[in-house]
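fwd from M.: "can u put these together and see what the complex looks like"

so here's what she sent:
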Amino acid sequence: MADDRQSPLFEAPPLSEQERMVEAILFATAEPVGLADLAARMPHGCDPRAALGLLARRYEGRGVQLVRVGELYAMRTAPDLGFLMSRETVETRKLSRAAIETLAIVAYHQPCTRAEIEEIRGVAVSRGTIDQLLELEWVRLGRRRQSPGRPVTFVTTEAFLDHFGLSSARDLPGLKDLRAAGLLDARQAPDASEDAAESKSDAQATMFPQDQDTSDPRDGDQT
Amino acid sequence: MADDRQSPLFEAPPLSEQERMVEAILFATAEPVGLADLAARMPHGCDPRAALGLLARRYEGRGVQLVRVGELYAMRTAPDLGFLMSRETVETRKLSRAAIETLAIVAYHQPCTRAEIEEIRGVAVSRGTIDQLLELEWVRLGRRRQSPGRPVTFVTTEAFLDHFGLSSARDLPGLKDLRAAGLLDARQAPDASEDAAESKSDAQATMFPQDQDTSDPRDGDQT
Amino acid sequence: MAEVTPLGGAVAERLAAEALIVDVEGFEGPLDLLLTLARTQKVDLRQISVLALARQYLGFVEQARELRIELAADYLVMAAWLAFLKSRLLLPPDPAEEGPSGAEMAAHLAFQLERLEAMRDAGARLMARDRKGRDFFARGLPERVERVRQVRWTATLLDLMQAYAHVRTRDDFRPYAMDREDVMTLDQALERMRGLIGFAGAWTDLASYLPGDWTGAPGRRRSAMASHFAASLELVKAGRIEIRQGESFAPIEIRRRDG
């Protein structure tokens, strides 16, 4: 942003114009769009983040809203108007109880291994349950855990955030309370070996590694 | 607001709310929507036409606009922002050998006819090759030759000189220059180079010309 | 944590267990069953009596056995563990005994139940959220982003000169005209070698196999050498001869292979 003035040839359009551009781009697509993508499509020197901030305020309380989906942005209709769109409603296959629980465990404990899911539920996780979540693209494979056997982990996706109207995994309902109550701790059975306890503890350390303020443009100018 | 008691069940929401509704419907539907359809979707007593009027004014000058398509309404990208909806990729490609040879012959022998090009190249020149050069504006039609059939001739253009950094066609290096630059020799027949090769080694040595130890010791330090 | 509660409501417990048995297919494993049983205690999971819970569970398993209902192995494993836990909770702690105390084990079970319930609630809350395609919607009429591909043709002056040089010198080296006269084919060489190897009992330089009229002109010799080399490799593959080369660029030698 600082040195745009060095190249007057590429002087960026005024911010109000940039806001129109972001508006047009986000309106034109059903998929959330990232900052880099916005910047690539807008003229040189534009500041999509600032434009998003303006846009978010403009649409506050409107029938359509600017929402954040992880690191991406999208326009979505206001949830209170869903009743108008009965014809657009897509019937989602009803998830089994096992699938819903597994999804919740992945969301709240991510990154989380299959063994951890099984320990929390007290039953083996059937292949189909995870497959269903992978197919819905609500869950994807994360990094392998740096513990014996290097098990794969599961994490939630941006499609998951988008579907449930969450701007980030940190906004999961009741996350803070659950954490405060120690219910997200990887607490080990008292008779378990110490090695296992060791490998579990890094599950917690890596949970929400990007747990920092990623200056959401929507909050940007409120302070 | 005055006579709520008369039909409390069917009281229409305030116009600003109706505007939100129309906004959400137009955003989310897959097709442009008519007034009747809007009225059918919205709560009883709404006035979609008035709401559309408000909405049209709200989106005036924005990145997206309310447009009328016959009797139907839709939101579309503002016409001046259409450029955001296309992504240009510029691909730089080398001219084919046929094209560059043809171009070279025209450059060195201009004005020259198609028959002359074919005679020099020893192959028929396809229509597409000449068309490409004409399209690139590196070659244009010259005068007709005053010979039987009055064939058209081809000459190079200013754009050609411009692209190759020449001030005139006479600046093209001559055959002697080419030879001096090693261009002709480098392209020399295998028989010529063979003598040199033969003189320094026997048949077997030249059978495996680059059969040397591939593990270059210098590689070691770089990694 | 896990205080021993007096036995109470045994009849109600048995009734509950019977109701549960009818539903046994509906449970997602022993922990799920335990959670359901725990709810019948009608207390906060933090105040749950693990001992009473163990009794409930064991009662359930007993009931199932009486009704000749086959329980999955993990239900029976849980039953065995709970029986063990029960004995630990009831007997005074033995200082000589290894491992966690009954109270520790009970506390962990209570934690597991609480955690499972928390995740179950979280799942329910998640599903009850405003959801895309049901409560809020994405753009219904998206506009396609068109990809416009522009091709820019280039050539340099060097390309131009090289092309011209190439055209002007083409006659000199006839790149496409195959010189049949001076090329020995692999078949020719193979044919020759087949007839000759019978005599090659000792290591012999491959070069000595080349026909006399192919060793004069360098081009002809090279072609013959290449074909003979390829032919030797064929024969090695067929197990007819052996081949060796002392070092790089040393003569290639071949020998008949007996047997």
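replying to her w this: Chain A has two domains: 11-88, 97-211.
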